[in-house]
């Protein structure tokens, strides 16, 4: 199977435009083979409540490329979106995440990131329903993470799709909140369970005073709308203490746990291996 991925890299100097295009093309080619060969898998990062209890995990995609090593999702998700491979890839990852969570002894939540393209193409509610039936995962344990990008394109369709997903009993989180363009009025129109404060704000707590003001405001906004608030990217004790003091409901970050293969968290999940 290795032959599929053998590439001759002739570009040792800076890439010209066409070299860059060729590299992107190769990445998309490799990606198709990688999906077929199941080279893409998920790492799991724990999420804790303010009281310090484990509430669940976020599934984060990893591609271990035979020659290039680990390719981050910031590189291959855009390539998958451009090539249209995101739909089969997303199906595979959703199935993996739900099957994994269904294997845990503890009824923890599992959060899965979805691409804006999955809203525009493909029947996301039907896919979710099929995956829940196939894996036996309770719908309340699944949370989909969407970004503000899905809210600005095709409002009516997004609204319909989100309500159909909500009707399945699945939770919906708005990821990277504060970095996109969504109108505040959308927040109460869309059936959101969770707001995730972007880690750029968390990183600036104690560094730039407006980060504290924004974080405090997002927590208050979430609570006023009856939406739970998660802070991502918590790396220090000071950040954690600030977030707990301000009433943030859940925290996630390297300080609390890194994204790792599921086996490594078996003691926390009660994973049946
Ligand atoms: P995200 O959903 O906002 O995920 C959080 C990112 O922050 C992850 O990066 C995670 O590893 C990283 N992170 C978590 N805690 C910390 C921390 O304390 N400090 C720092 N510096 N970083 C932290 P990752 O895994 O590289 O993923 C990047 C983005 O790629 C994700 O952002 C998400 O938008 C996207 N992504 C990842 N997996 C998938 C997937 O399966 N499907 C789709 N559509 N997108 C995905
Ligand atoms: Mg996310
Ligand atoms: Mg996020
Ligand atoms: Mg983020």
Automatic annotation (TrEMBL):
Annotated EAL domain residues: 24-273
Protein name (record): PAS domain S-box-containing protein
Organism: Bosea lupini
Entire protein: shown range: 132 to 404 of 404
